[in-house]
Amino acid sequence: MANIEENKKTIKRYFEELMNKQDYSKADEILHEDYTGAALGGLKGVDAHKQVVKQLHSYSSNLTYETLEMIAEGDKIAIFQKVSGTHDGEFNGIQPTGIEFSMNGSSVYELKDGKMYRGLSNAVGDWLGMYQQLGVLPPTADFIQAYNDSLK
Q: Using CA atoms, how far apart are residues 80 and 124, in angstroms rounded to an integer?
């Protein structure tokens, strides 16, 4: 079992270097050779991870992950983070809106040999809020009003 503080440093590097900067020059120091992740239906290996990050940045060229809280026990780390950017690429069939968005989410990661081994990306995220920010869905108050009106 690796040192918890070293694991936290690895997670910070993961988000700063790989997810934010898309710099894979030191990916072998951060990602375990047997890395697997749950993003976009599942992925395995560094190359697959690189493709997912590239795809995420195609939705928002300035996509940024900010860690707000990190809790570690053993080789597992849970994080609470803010993801933000500008919707300047097609996302789930939604044409670019140019709208800035931010979304909070939580994820759990497992490390092995001091490297990122398994990722459960966006285990919990405020997708409703993000779609509302992009103007795809109406505000929550409108949903509630429509529901209440349907009961009359």
A: 9
User: To which H or E segment does residue 146 belong?
Assistant: helix 140-150
Q: Are 62 and 86 in contact (CB under 8 A)?
A: yes
pLDDT at 1 exceeding the cut of 60: no
Q: Which CATH architecture has domain 4-150?
A: Roll (3.10)
The full set of domain ranges for the chain reads 4-150
Specify the pTM. 0.85
Given a cut of 70, is residue 32 above it in pLDDT? yes
Q: Region 80-92: what's the mean pLDDT? A: 94
3-state secondary structure 68-117: EEEEEECCEEEEEEEEEEECCCCECCECCCCCEEEEEEEEEEEEECCEEE
